[in-house]
């Protein structure tokens, strides 16, 4: 067996994963490259006769079972190569077991940061120590120092870091766990003292806090019946002494309560007003319809208000990107913030609660625990396997036989169950024979790996049916999954935003949300609570209108040609939304046409291009792209200088602006960013005249892109800044006439801003799309109003 070739290729794939794991899709696409490689390798090892039959077998009209029968024949070359590769992968990617030595190293590293009062860094290392620590049964008959549990030490130290970070509930949890896992007797007074302080910080009365700890301490002592009385007395004395040295501050309690209240106030409304009885996870405001042209689609059953919740759905099955295993709960995908419940067996999976840990183990992790490192390479295949594990293999096979080739009638009732998943389109008949061959090989690989995971036996009569379901789900996942997003600003502002701060942390199948058709614009937007997806209306929607969802190809970001090709390639349809009927282009990303100067040069991914004004194209695309890439490097440097308020920032930004004006279309979004930063640079110098000039350019570009009647926070913020700067310019002039001229202009801008502000109230989508801008607008509004009141008297 040519295992050397396989080893070399596996190493190449692993290197690619390491280098690109932080990009948005490399680890997701790795399975496809992996499966394609195996298919090509198998072909190269076949005889000519086998190759002829191999090519004939993958007819898109054939069933999944027919295509797999040929591959899974034990005499076939494919089986020998796939099983050899599975063995090779599992040998190289063993389970990440617990290790007390590594746990101690992580804990001691955390101790160094803790001594330097770097509590956040200490917390990271303590959490790693918790994940690495073996789960050792506590021996209540011994209190010898050598029997101490590394897990109890890591938990206790983490509780201390959490206490200093005022994360009291999590600290309390770790204290209790540390006691359970046998925290050493000679130090337990520190733990119990900390617990009293934590309880008080959480609002527990002094007497009640002391009573709770006394009860736990007595229970702790009773489990150690062999302890001498003098040691028990000594521990109690130490506890009282420690409490005197660490009296809790009232401010600590107030801070904790205030933080909780603020967090509650910041939470967005994500509740469905009235649940739909016939459409699972959906609002009663929507319904499923069906037509020959559209297939199944969702439309408004009644008038819908902007920001109304239309769907609230937990995933049927999910996949967390390996790069984020440390950061997010392996089950519900909530952000862990360096606090987790560890798996009892591996050091990889981390959870936000005991509930998630137990549910995960029950549904899938008991099978995956020892194989997560190998599953890193199988993304789409991993999610396909999870779909079956969620239902149970036996139940999935029975259900698949019952509903084979039937489409669920979603117009009467749609339950978002496994029957619903099976009814999702897989586009098998539209795919090429070559792609089907690769996906079939990938499905066979997952099936043989499942045998190693003790999920199913190769000798089972249902092995081919099992592999066929994996095959079907792989194709469904390619065109029915949604990305799961996390917002880095969420911890600061209390809820998710819509903007550049979003990270793709995984993918999932949402059977109900999958009913939404695509539009290159959209009337809804997603929010996430971990992996739970909430869909809200962007604007008002009238009864009878279709509810659409953008599949990731927005008209403002991607050219018409690229959108059409991408949607056809992945989803097998030609988009006929209103924007595509108008051939709407991404002018905010267009270049400046070198032929007519004023036109928008639309550039496609294949380098084809045309000008929206003169219709001409250019030939030397490489030179233009190279110039733009060089300009982007300069802009990146300018932004860094701006952030640190360097004196060089303004001149660097001016050079970038000059270069951009030569390269890009007059409505390019980068011009807005440059003008805003330049305005702030001049404002820092109190050169209000120049600052006004750049805010005026900002306003002109913004209204040219979105229309003068459009109400959004970018325009609102610009108007408020213009108002404030005009007032400052008037004061600086020390000329009464000039001051009133500036004030009159400022009042006009402010009145326009007030109108926009009134229009935006309640439009949560606009708030979410530019949180930083909104914050500035809210701060500026009363300041400008106060200044104008002083001048005009109310």
UniProtKB/TrEMBL annotation:
Function: Protein-lysine N-methyltransferase. Monomethylates PRMT5, modulating its transcriptional activity. May also act as a histone methyltransferase. Plays a critical role in cardiac development. Acts as a key epigenetic regulator of gene expression during cardiac development via its dual activities as a methyltransferase and negative regulator of HDAC1.
Single GO BP term: methylation
TPR repeat positions: 103-136
Single GO cellular component term: nucleus
Domain SET: 284-552
Organism: Dinothrombium tinctorium
Subcellular location, record wording: Cytoplasm; Nucleus
Cited PROSITE patterns: SET (PS50280), TPR (PS50005), ZF_MYND_1 (PS01360), ZF_MYND_2 (PS50865)
SMART domains: TPR
Alphabetically ordered keywords of this record: Cytoplasm, Metal-binding, Methyltransferase, Nucleus, S-adenosyl-L-methionine, TPR repeat, Transferase, Zinc, Zinc-finger
InterPro entries with a match to the protein in the record: SET-MYND_domain_protein, SET_dom, SET_dom_sf, SMYD4_SET, TPR-like_helical_dom_sf, TPR_rpt, Znf_MYND
Record's protein name: Protein-lysine N-methyltransferase SMYD4
Domain named MYND-type: residues: 329-369
Recorded superkingdom: Eukaryota
Catalytic activity, reaction form: L-lysyl-[protein] + S-adenosyl-L-methionine = N(6)-methyl-L-lysyl-[protein] + S-adenosyl-L-homocysteine + H(+)
GO function terms (MF aspect): histone deacetylase binding; N-methyltransferase activity; protein methyltransferase activity; S-adenosylmethionine-dependent methyltransferase activity; zinc ion binding
């Amino acid at each position: 067996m040519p295992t050397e070739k396989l080893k070399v290729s596996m190493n190449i794939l692993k290197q690619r994963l390491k280098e690109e794991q932080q990009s948005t899709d490399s680890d997701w696409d790795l399975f496809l490259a992996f499966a394609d490689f195996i298919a090509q390798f198998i072909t190269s090892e076949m005889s000519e006769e086998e190759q002829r039959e191999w090519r004939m077998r993958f007819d898109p009209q054939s069933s999944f079972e027919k295509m797999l029968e040929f591959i899974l024949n034990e005499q076939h070359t494919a089986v020998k190569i796939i099983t050899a590769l599975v063995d090779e992968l599992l040998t190289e990617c063993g389970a990440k077991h617990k290790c007390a030595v590594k746990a101690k190293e992580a804990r001691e590293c955390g101790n160094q940061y803790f001594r330097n009062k770097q509590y956040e860094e200490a917390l990271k290392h303590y959490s790693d120590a918790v994940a690495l620590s073996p789960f050792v049964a506590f021996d209540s008959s011994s209190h010898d120092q050598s029997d101490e549990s590394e897990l109890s030490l890591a938990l206790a130290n983490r509780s201390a870091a959490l206490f200093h970070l005022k994360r009291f509930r999590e600290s309390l949890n770790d204290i209790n766990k540390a006691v359970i896992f046998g925290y050493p007797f000679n130090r337990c007074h520190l733990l119990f003292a900390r617990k009293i302080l934590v309880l008080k910080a959480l609002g527990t009365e002094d007497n009640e806090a002391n009573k709770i700890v006394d009860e736990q301490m007595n229970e702790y002592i009773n489990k150690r019946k062999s302890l001498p009385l003098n040691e028990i007395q000594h521990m109690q004395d130490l506890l009282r002494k420690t409490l005197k040295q660490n009296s809790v501050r009232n401010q600590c309690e107030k801070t904790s309560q205030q933080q909780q209240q603020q967090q509650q106030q910041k939470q967005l409304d994500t509740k469905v007003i009235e649940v739909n009885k016939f459409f699972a996870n959906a609002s009663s405001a929507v319904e499923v319809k069906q037509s020959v042209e559209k297939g199944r689609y969702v439309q408004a059953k009644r008038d819908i208000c902007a920001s109304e919740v239309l769907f609230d759905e937990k995933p049927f099955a999910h996949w967390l990107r390996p790069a984020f295993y440390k950061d997010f709960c392996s089950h519900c995908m909530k952000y862990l913030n360096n606090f987790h419940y560890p798996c009892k067996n591996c050091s990889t999976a981390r959870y936000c609660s005991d509930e998630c840990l137990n549910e995960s183990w029950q549904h899938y992790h008991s099978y995956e625990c020892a194989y997560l490192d190998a599953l890193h390479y199988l993304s789409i295949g991993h999610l396909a396997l999870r779909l079956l594990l969620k239902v149970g293999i036996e139940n999935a096979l029975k259900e698949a036989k019952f509903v084979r080739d039937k489409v669920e009638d979603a117009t009467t009732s749609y339950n978002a169950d496994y029957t619903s998943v099976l009814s999702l389109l897989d586009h098998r008949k539209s795919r090429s024979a070559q792609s089907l061959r690769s996906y079939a090989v990938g499905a066979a690989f997952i099936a043989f790996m499942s045998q190693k995971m003790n999920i199913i036996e190769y000798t089972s009569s249902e092995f081919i049916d099992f592999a066929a379901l994996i095959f079907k789900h792989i194709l469904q996942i390619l065109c029915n999954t949604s990305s799961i997003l996390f917002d880095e600003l969420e911890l600061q502002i209390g809820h998710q935003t819509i903007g550049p701060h979003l990270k793709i942390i995984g993918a999932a199948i949402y059977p109900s949300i999958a009913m939404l058709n695509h539009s290159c614009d959209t009337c809804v937007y997603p929010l996430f609570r971990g992996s739970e997806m909430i869909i809200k209306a962007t604007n008002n929607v009238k009864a009878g209108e279709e509810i659409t969802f953008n599949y990731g190809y927005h008209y403002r970001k991607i050219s018409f040609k690229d959108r059409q090709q991408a949607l056809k390639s992945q989803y097998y349809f030609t988009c006929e939304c209103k924007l595509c009927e108008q051939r709407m282009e991404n002018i905010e990303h267009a270049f400046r046409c070198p032929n007519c100067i004023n036109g928008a040069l639309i550039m496609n991914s294949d380098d084809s291009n045309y000008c929206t004004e003169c219709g001409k194209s250019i030939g030397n695309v490489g030179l233009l792209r190279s110039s733009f890439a060089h300009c982007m490097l300069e802009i990146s440097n300018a932004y860094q200088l701006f952030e640190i308020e360097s004196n060089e920032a303004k001149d660097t930004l001016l050079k970038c602006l000059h270069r951009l004006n030569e390269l890009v279309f007059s409505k390019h979004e980068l011009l807005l960013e440059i003008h805003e930063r330049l305005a702030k640079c001049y404002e820092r110098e109190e050169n209000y005249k120049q600052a006004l000039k750049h805010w005026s350019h900002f306003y002109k570009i913004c209204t040219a892109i979105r229309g003068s009647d459009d109400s959004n926070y970018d325009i609102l913020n610009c108007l408020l800044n213009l108002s404030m700067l005009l007032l400052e310019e008037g004061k600086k002039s020390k000329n009464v006439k000039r001051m009133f001229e500036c004030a009159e202009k400022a009042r006009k801008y402010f009145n326009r801003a007030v109108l926009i502000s009134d229009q935006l109230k309640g439009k949560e989508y606009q708030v979410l799309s530019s949180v930083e801008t909104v914050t500035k607008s809210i701060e500026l509004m009363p300041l400008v109003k106060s200044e104008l009141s002083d001048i005009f008297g109310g």
